[in-house]
Amino acid sequence: MKLDNPLTGTMVSLDEWWMPFTANRQFKAAPRLLAKADGMHYWTPDGRQILDGTAGLWCVNAGHNRKPIVEAVQKQAATMDFAPPFQVGHPLAFEAATAVANVAPAGMRHVFFVNSGSEAADTALKMALAYHRARGEPSRRIIIGRERGYHGVNIGGTMAGGIPGNRKVWPAMMAGVDHIRSTHDLARNAFSRGQPAHGAEFADELDRLIAFHDASNIAAVIVEPMGGSAGVLIPPQGYLEKLAASCRKHGILLIFDEVITGFGRLGAPFAADYFGITPDILTCAKAINNAAVPLGAVLASDAVHDAIVNGAPEGAIEFLHGYTYSGHPLACAAVVATQKLYAQEKLFDRARDLAPFWEQALHSLKDARHVIDVRNLGLVGGIELEPRAGAPARRGLEAHVRCFESGALVRFTGDILAMSPPLVIEKPQIEQLVETIRESLKKID
Ligand SMILES: Cc1ncc(COP(=O)(O)O)c(C=O)c1O
Question: I need a labelling partner for 314 at 20 to 30 A (CA). Which of 109, 165, 197, 427 fits?
């Protein structure tokens, strides 16, 4: 299929790009294209304005095309396009690491740059194994994840994640991992505002797995403090505290995957701050530089960093890991400019202050057609729809398409709609988003 690109006047073929996480045949039959962005909006190639209810993909927290970030990237591209990160360095990468460390949870000032959330997850898992080996406990190899957990698409994250489709297609990758159950409990927690009241006891499953495998074989527990990609799964009250306590008691590292929650999404710098729980290793990406250039990072505690780095012989590479593009100059320029912008505009506080209005607006959808749950935390919202009999996920897709046609971008995972707007969203735009969803739901079967 070909379509006209009004921006360039050329015909564009849709055949060659095999799109990620997309129903390619369905998409190419009826493409939804974005051509321009600014602030809270996208524009389609034919000039239709779309309110961005998802900050791109949970990542453009300061809004689109912010001038200081654009200018910083442009300037860096013209100054030094690339510098190798192995055995030589460039000042901007150090400056970017310091900027991230300055907002990181206390005691997590060691920043390892990668290029995506998936790479951050795999790096974190390798770091956990390296830590135990450095401390003389190489038998600690098992990774515990959680059902419905999402840690990206590389091998470690695919294994540790709890997405059933992955387990079906790539079962051979699933060695050396085990999983605790998901915290999702609609029967008891539907329409909870903020953290649901029921389900702290789901964390007891970790104790069962520790007894089963023995702590001496377990390296780390990796969870998203708030599950995003598998459908906005908010941790029950007391749940994360229990997980953290079991990890501490048994010498197991706790890894928080904050690829979605990092940099203000919950109204605090990190979910670790929001929940008052500091992990040993933390992964982040996306909003770290407002998604201007691909970049992720792994933050390590002093204990993890020091065991690996100080434990190696003098002159040896302590951690045999890294990417050609770790600390890419353009990405780092965007980090420094983004972190400055977040601080200047106090965007994390803004998210915190807007959260009650956001919650109220979202929960007004309780009586909307097809809705069986509304959940929220910080500036995240999830709307669960009743699946259509015999066609799960169809209603979610149709709701997404209807909203897009009506001028709003919302994400869907199965029959769950997920919202995570830029932190600069205004109250009337929140109302517009909610009304677009309400009207769109009326129109689908
Ligand atoms: C919690 C979490 N971890 C990892 C990833 C993977 O990030 P990326 O798509 O940048 O590889 C995502 C992506 O949404 C995520 O939500």
Answer: 109
Q: Is any ligand 1 atom within 6 A of the Cβ of residue 122?
A: no
Does residue 152 have its Cβ closer than 6 Å to ligand 1?
A: yes
Torsion of CA 285, 288, 293, 297, to 10 degrees: -40
d(CA 442, ligand 1 centre) in Å: 32
What's the CA-to-centroid distance between 127 and ligand 1, angstroms? 18
Write the CB contacts of 109 (distance below 8 Å, at least 6 apart in sequence).
101, 299, 302
Strand, helix or coil for residue 355: helix
Find tokens 């949970």 and name the residue. 58
- Beta-carbon contacts of 328 under 8 Å, excluding residues fewer than 6 positions away, are 82, 115, 293, 294, 295
Q: Is 117 in the pocket of ligand 1 (CB under 6 A)?
A: yes
Q: Would the CB of 114 count as within 6 Å of ligand 1? A: no
Distance of CA 258 from the midpoint of ligand 1 (Å): 9
Is any ligand 1 atom within 6 A of the Cβ of residue 325?
A: no
- In angstroms, the CA 415 to CA 408 distance is 17
| Ranges assigned E (strand) in 92-176 | 110-114, 142-146
And the tokens for 227?
A: 């599950």
**pLDDT, tens digit, 9 for 90 and up, residues 313-352:** 999 999 999 999 999 999 999 999 999 999 999 999 999 9
The answer on pLDDT for 386 being more than 90 is yes
**Separation of 312 CA from ligand 1 center, angstroms?**
31
pLDDT at 14: 95
Q: Is 416 in the pocket of ligand 1 (CB under 6 A)?
A: no
Given 3-state DSSP classes, what are the helix, strand and coil percentages for the chain, each rounded to the nearest 5? 40, 20, 40
DSSP state of 367: G
Q: Tokens representing 424?
A: 């600069």
Burial call 299-313: b when 16+ CB within 10 Å, e when fewer = bbbeebbebbeeeee
Pocket flag, ligand 1, residue 224 (CB < 6 Å): yes
Q: What does the alpha-carbon distance between residue 122 and residue 281 come to, in Å, rounded to a whole number?
A: 12
Supply 309's token pair: 């780095």
